Amino acid sequence: MEDELWRQLYPVVQEEAKRKTRRRRCQYSDATIVLVFFWAVLHDRPVSWACRARHWPPESRWIRLPSQPTMSQRLKTLSVAQLMMAVYQRLQQVPHRPPQSMPPLCRCIDSKPLVVGGFSKDREAKRGYATGGLARGYKIFTIWGMAVVPDAFALGPLNQADPDGAAQLVRLLEGCGYLLADAIHDVNPLHAICSERGFQLVSPRQKPGTDLGHRPHTPGRLRSLQMLEGPSPFGRSLYASREQIERYYGQWTSFGGGLAPLPSWVRHPRRVALWVLGKLILNGLRICINHGLAA
After folding, report:
1. Cβ-contact 141, 169 below 8 angstroms
2. Taking every pair of C-alpha atoms in the chain, what is the biggest distance, in angstroms?
3. For residues 108 and 181, is the Cβ–Cβ distance under 8 A?
4. 0.85 cut: is pTM over it?
5. Cα(57)–Cα(127) distance, rounded to whole angstroms?
6. pLDDT at residue 181 tops 90
């Protein structure tokens, strides 16, 4: 799978790099920096490992590789970040309709904890709830639609509430439709933000069948309750398709080069966000390969 992903990734990066103005007085192009970074991400190794020629296949050892300090500096530049996002946005244009996909105009919201070791010196890794109890680390928030990569994603500390992370992403979305989320997202402020952006949040209550109390509720939340608890089966059948995002997360972590627990050299928000972006792009390319899609 690693070889297939690399053969798919290499021309995509080169094509997107040709659309950008080449940096002057730079020994290494942005495409070279991005490809060396992806070689490390693909093999779950540090960037310094990818800077050594012996870790590349014989047919690629003619390439002059940058040093680790050069990689560290160039990965912080705006032009490299723009090239990475150009590759990601290209994959956002690739439609994907698996057999059990969501209906049109539906998107799913979810998050995934990215845990670091308990004795890590990363001060930005906050303590919060993860699978199995309290831990330290980060959290990736995603809204997944009909493309091979999420329509929007953001990185936050592990102690950030899911509704807050979802609200941040909803403000980035365009269009309209339904947003399917689990019960933790059923809060009035998030319903209000979704309504302002033209979306209907569909999220079950944590205690269905109980009274609503004396507090006023937004029209969006009342509509969500009517869809999921009313006589019409439309809302419940719509919400059943939310299982697709669980499949996306499961497949994202179950192939060679996919998202594994954060390695020890991926710390601090900038590096974690770059690492997760690389894994999202590789997963999108994997979907393209498996389903015969053109990236």
Report:
1. yes
2. 71
3. yes
4. yes
5. 41
6. yes
How many C-beta atoms surround the C-beta of residue 35 within 10 A? 20
pLDDT at res. 20: 80
Residues 6+ apart with CB under 8 A from 249: 110, 112
- Asked if residue 75 has pLDDT above 60, the reply is yes
pLDDT at residue 55 greater than cutoff 70: yes
Residue 51: pLDDT above 70?
Answer: yes
Looking at every residue in the chain, the average pLDDT score rounds to 90
Residue 157 burial (CB < 10 Å; 0-12/13-18/19+)?
middle
How far is Cα 217 from Cα 229, in angstroms, rounded to an integer?
A: 16
Extract the tokens encoding 203: 């999220």
Q: Which residues contact 164 (CB under 8 A, 6 or more apart)?
A: 156
The contacts of residue 155 (CB under 8 Å, 6+ apart) are 138, 139, 140, 141, 269, 272, 273, 276
What is 68-104 written as a DSSP string?
A: HHHHHHHTTSHHHHHHHHHHHHHHHTSB---TTPPPT
Residues 112/158, Cβ–Cβ less than 8 Å? no
